Amino acid sequence: MLRLYNTLTHKEEPFAPLHGDVVRMYGCGPTVYARAHIGNFRTYVCLDVLRRTLKYVCGHQVRQAVNYTDVDDKTIKGALESGTSLREYTDTWIHAFREDSARLGIEAPEETPRATDDENMRAMGDMILTLEAKGHAYRRDGSIYFKISTLPQYGQLARLDRDGMKDGAAVDVDEYSKDDPRDFVLWKASKPGEPSWDVGTGAGRPGWHLECSAMALRLLGGPPIDIHAGGVDLVFPHHENEIAQSEGATGTTFARCWFHIEHLFVESEKMSKSLGNVYTIAEIVARGHRPSALRYLLLSSHYRKQLNFTWTGMDQAEEAIRRIVDFRSRLDTVTDSAAHGRVPPQVADARQAFKTALEHDLNTAGALAAVFDLVRDVNAAIDAHEVSAAEAREAADAIDHFDRVLGVVSLRQAEDAEPPVPVEEIERLIGERRAARERRDFAAADRIRKELVERGILLEDNAGGTRWKKK
RNA sequence: GGCGCCGUCGCCAAGUGGUAAGGCAGAGGUCUGCAAAACCUCCAUCUCCGGUUCAAAUCCGGACGGCGCCUCCA
Question: Among A34, A40, A37, A41, which Cα is nearest to A89's?
């Protein structure tokens, strides 16, 4: 059974969906005002692995929502500066995000709501009115605030207490007049020139936290929903405030399990624009790396540990994937008909180890070890001519199964499907080279191989003939 | 000031009470026309100091080092 670390309880707990076999999960998505960076994508790749584990390892169905925050200070400013409407402006970045997500092999969630969609705005308005009716909210100068003192459990997720929040920590000094500095805004009064909505709230726009509460409950049903996720930085105040709003409005638990992904660092430093180390997928590619390598790198350490992105790490990831991909294609070349019985138990062990690792709070590094164990074992068996085609098929099925969760082999194969040299030309040259080798003209043969290497194609001579692959 | 995390081979990284997975890199070897790939062999006692235990990388205490949150942020 899957066990997940729950931020709410600070413990690893067995996880099962509340209703039947459907896991209802919500992830806080990007604010769409710029191209997302690799740190953002660590979160989304880890969510993807969680999603895939739930589906393909645990056998659950998944109903996942990941939102686009398409109205806030940054998006409004960006739209203004680019001279386009908020909708057009955010459309651009949503498109970019989908493009990058696809390059990283992230499965599309069932729901990708936008805050400014009518039905979501209405849901937010309804939630505010409910909070007001229950005495959790108050209006001041056209804005509406959540009154923290009305909710005794406030602070449970982040484990913050009032007394500790003093010296050294910045105290929220707001330009608005709130009853308590910690009260947060549910609805911001509109300013001249800014887009605004009125959903029983007066003209304005939603506060930072409101959209997630409203959309999660609208799209996933409940409460409680099964899993709520995001980057660690969202624990406070975002998620704490989401809990306050949702539980204030519904009177019951908002989310059963809180799943948080640690931050990515770059060359041991926090990413920041001033350091110039905020990389996007496009920049990774421009440096000659495949997105699959980034995905692998993100999977190679545990999601609750800080991960240090380095270019050496990317090089190592490229090599590691290559080993698995080479193995996977080698399996297709096995033609022996006699079974030897050596491989099936190896496959069974690997499948078991893979599952056990993922079930243990998504231990992807451990799962990868299981994959490599199988690679080594079966490679050795093939070298010893002790594998039948059917047994190779079993191993291939296992690798394909593993990759439904890892999503890294298929990604690499897709990336390498378009070689820099036309396939017919590669094959023609391989033919010429074979002829040269047959007449023992190794100089000519080596010349062809060298030429292809320079054009990005590697040749490997095996018992069955010559194989090519992208460098 | 409060809360919390981390320190395992050159690099990355599992393991969290029973005697150190895996990947990358490296050395030697097998195979090969040569390469490549693959395989085999070699390559750490877990930051340090105490303690608990038959047994600790794993638990407790302390030291040193690194980091996060308490403020917009994945």
Answer: A34
